[in-house]
Write a structure and sequence with these properties.
alpha/beta, TIM Barrel, 8 strands
């Protein structure tokens, strides 16, 4: 499965293709799905371009994106603590949602991860466990009552040099061997995005790409939106499917 991550915490001064409004996110999602994305992850943003879990913001973004991609494509959102540092307030925001995503990511190195996961589960929303390399997230998740109860694990390589991305990715995947069979989606960011995607291809794991993870194509040129990134990733994944995993 290839997930597209449409925007992340990035700003439009980083790339003019970063979608902020619901209409922009819908257009980017439509193009990305046509290019081969099978799942959508997005950060709902308010009119200032700030990530938000406000019920109206989440509703507008989800409705627009779902109309653009159709019912066969799952759409998920972030619940990162930068949207609301107080975990209890963040949980109340999730409780206030009137339109629900298919899934939402929970970063287990952040305070209140179990509370946010419980709130999502109570609402019938699938949980993506965000487990970052170089953090206590993997240990915290494996000790959590939600270990083995998530839709998938998002294994993110963060802060590693590009030359060490594959080694870091393999180490994190081995560390997550106790996740009770939950599918692993392996991805990197910035300099590690493409090396880690190639590693996911060789291992036969789910992957993701999009402007949240990188602003550049494999050849280093700027990506004019999410669709070119998805198309490049599809090519890599197709080749990787014929390559034996290490």
């Amino acid at each position: 499965m290839l997930q597209v991550c449409l925007n992340g915490v990035r700003r439009t001064d980083e790339s003019p293709w970063i979608p902020v409004s619901a209409e922009e996110a819908a257009a980017e999602a439509r193009r990305a799905v046509r290019a081969g994305a099978q799942d959508v992850h997005l950060h709902p943003k308010d009119h200032r371009g700030h990530d938000s879990l406000d019920a109206a913001v989440v509703r507008d973004m989800l409705q627009a994106v779902r109309e653009a991609v159709g019912p066969a494509v799952a759409v998920g959102v972030t619940t990162g603590e930068w949207t609301e540092p107080d975990a209890r307030r963040r949980a109340r925001l999730v409780e206030s949602w009137t339109v629900l995503p298919d899934h939402a990511s929970v970063n287990w190195h952040e305070d209140g991860a179990d509370l946010i996961a419980r709130t999502l589960a109570d609402r019938g929303i699938g949980i993506e466990a965000g487990l970052f390399s170089g953090t206590d997230g993997p240990r915290a998740h494996l000790a959590s009552p939600f270990a083995g109860r998530v839709l998938r694990v998002l294994a993110e390589i963060s802060g590693a040099p590009a030359a060490q991305a594959e080694e870091a990715a393999l180490g994190l995947v081995r560390r997550l061997a106790g996740t009770a069979g939950a599918p692993v989606l392996l991805h990197g960011e910035d300099d590690t995005a493409w090396p880690v995607l190639r590693t996911a291809a060789r291992l036969g794991l789910d992957a993701r790409i999009g402007l949240e993870d990188t602003l550049r194509l494999p050849d280093g040129s700027p990506a004019e939106g999410n669709a070119p990134l998805v198309a490049a990733a599809r090519d890599i994944l197709a080749r990787g499917a014929d390559t034996a995993a290490p």
